[in-house]
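Journal club prep — side note

Before the paper discussion, L.F. wants everyone to see what a predicted structure for a comparable chain looks like in token form. Sequence:
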Amino acid sequence: MTFRCLFLLLVGLLAHTVQAQQFTAHGTVTYETFVAGDRQSGSEYGFEFSFDNGRYFIGLNPTDSNLPDIRFGFEAGALYRIQHVLHPSPGAVNDFAGNVQAREWPQDDGTGANVIWLALGSFKPMAALAASTNRTFPPFWPLDDFYLAKEGFRMPVRLSLLAGGLPQQLVFLNDGTNRHSDLNGVRHVDRYTGRLADGYTNALYDVGQTMAYKGLTLPSIAALTRYYPIGQDSLAIRSVYTIKVSKVGPLAIKTFLPVFSGRAFTIDDRFPIVVGSRTNSLHYAHTNGFWPQGNALNRIYYQQLRQYGVFP
């Protein structure tokens, strides 16, 4: 094989890899909670997920008209979230509520957006995790000790991958310790003394069925199941997210920032404003899909610094 042929072959392989990580998927995500084995509540969203080599968009449309539609977009290290205000108070001028954070995947808010990302968009973090000799990962759910998330708490995990790099199974392992904080904010760390003392499975993400798309193996059915201890010796199911992907095709969007029509009020947690012992977040109103960036965002930030008396 000549050098030219080898070069063209490598270029073709690289182009195929890039193309393979560009797609749009549609499906449903359901969320169920349980107490002592009895189902307590549930919700369902139809979703659109678009991915382009790290950037992604998630659109969620609930089957329950009492729940808002929600949009997420991740680009340049920032996660954008916006949801429709269903029942505005009298005189309210905002149609949407927004939030921006310096994080890669959504927090667990009961919609399943975090599990959609894990199932379809976690290529890079899973590659880093697979290459690590100390496999730990942040939990995918609110913790009973709410300080832990701010401290960067991570749990031991077991990981296996599908062809192409998405997780086939991700097991979160508790080391036999009950970490929680009470209503007064006092933190507690207690060791289990029974069968759970040696550790247990706190959560299990598992792919049930798969589909192929341009060299990737994608989940068509997957679930994230959380467990909680009963006493010192046994476990019960706390909640289950179930993802079902109905179709996958070429990338169907050009912008990954959430698009909306109307007026939004957004809290931007990337820019804390510390005033004495209190920390405030940058906030701004914006309209018709425009998200302040660059110099426009800096002007808003410095203006609010001056308003709080932090910046002369």
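L.F.'s comment for the group: DSSP finds five helices and 16 strands in the chain. Keep this in mind when we get to the figures.
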